Amino acid sequence: MPGPSNTLLIEGSFEELADELSHYLDEVKRKQGDNNTAVQAEITPLLEQNQKDEVLKKLVTGSAVLNSAPEKGQATVYMSSYCAIEFIAAYNLLVHLVRQSPNLNIFLPKICHNLSAPVSSSPTNGPGLALSVLATIFNILPQDNDVRYHVFLAILRVIRSSGSFELLRPQLKNLDDWITQWETDEEDQRKLYLTIAEVAEEASEEQQSYLYLLLALRTIPSDEASSPEARQLSIRALKSALSYPTHFDFQDLTSLDSVQALRKSDATIFELLEIFNAQVLDDYNDFKDEHDDFIASQDLPDEILVRKMRLLTLASLAASTQSRSLPYQHIARALQIPSEDTEIWVIDTIRAGLVEGKLSQLNQTFL
């Protein structure tokens, strides 16, 4: 994963190393039964003419075959020398060669694309191998090089495919600094945030997913608040906030222009948001009666929504009471629960951080 900047120390001239890598690419292709192309033969005249970028184009194009190269070192006899190359070493050699070009930014995206693809020669260890190479690429680039953005997107794709969100988590604290260093525009920021949100969602990291979905929404300019993309993302964020069992503060959504735009384009779901933002369980039940099957049609979990509304209703009741105590019977009536369950719901509401106080079993009140 990304870390401190480092360097690749590989000895040999460009010509020698390019020839060695091209031979290895041809060897891997031949072992797969592909005898139609010979990278070494294609680059030899280009090397003689000192056309390094043309050589690199051939090597980078042919490097897709590395994803089927052996994970461990494989010995081959070449020009009376013993050459041992493995997946990571081969990619590091390619990166070393590409770094010698003034057009580095042309070649690295293709390499990152290849590394994002499955490593067929090692399905189990493939993601780790790919991440190792991608981390090397990320760390050898200057901090303000915007190609780092594309490398990081490739890292995210590998993490998503391998379900290894824990590798990403410690890096997220650096994201704001990276975005500043790369001078990333709003559209690219949105793409990055959405990719992280999707990685987190697939890892069942609901809170992280919602956080980055919200950040993506904040990159949408006010004059685009009613655009199809803004509408789609706003509905997605709204559903996520409603469905997440421990999310109770909806001001982060209602403050966004794109979410406010739903008042006109999607009035029903906006009405539902307003109920969770400032109303109580009775209002939610009235909503369901008025909009039959709407909750189910939106794939919203009614059981979770009812529970959240009960907790929010108790919080609202506690905030609006004129006295310092709430009788159990008032709580039970407002939450539409058996009176014997009152204490359980009060405790859950306290644990959710929505109210503070203590229970008096003697007086049957919440103080």
Descriptive key words:
single chain, 367 residues, mainly alpha, 3-stranded antiparallel sheet, two-stranded antiparallel ribbon, 5 strands, 62% helix, elongated
Model description:
- The chain is mainly alpha-helical.
- Helix content is 62%, strand content 4%.
- It has a three-stranded antiparallel sheet with strand order 3-5-4. The protein has a two-stranded antiparallel sheet with strand order 1-2.
- Strand 1 (74-78) and strand 2 (81-85) form a beta hairpin.
- Helix 5 runs parallel beside helix 7.
- The relative contact order is 0.06.
- Mean pLDDT is 89; it is low at 73-84.
The overall pLDDT, averaged over residues, is: 89
Uncertain segments are 73-84
Instruction: Report the radius of gyration as a whole number of Å.
Output: 29 Å
Main sheet makeup: 3 strands, antiparallel
SSE layout and pairing:
Layout: H1 14-31, H2 39-48, H3 52-62, E1 74-78, E2 81-85, H4 87-98, H5 104-116, H6 126-140, H7 147-162, H8 165-168, H9 175-182, H10 186-202, H11 206-218, H12 228-243, H13 251-254, H14 257-260, H15 262-265, H16 267-278, H17 281-290, H18 294-297, H19 302-320, E3 326-327, H20 328-335, H21 342-351, E4 359-360, E5 365-366
Antiparallel strand pairs: 1-2, 3-5, 4-5
Helix pairs in contact: 1-2, 1-3, 1-4, 2-3, 4-6, 5-6, 5-7, 6-7, 7-10, 10-11, 11-12, 19-21
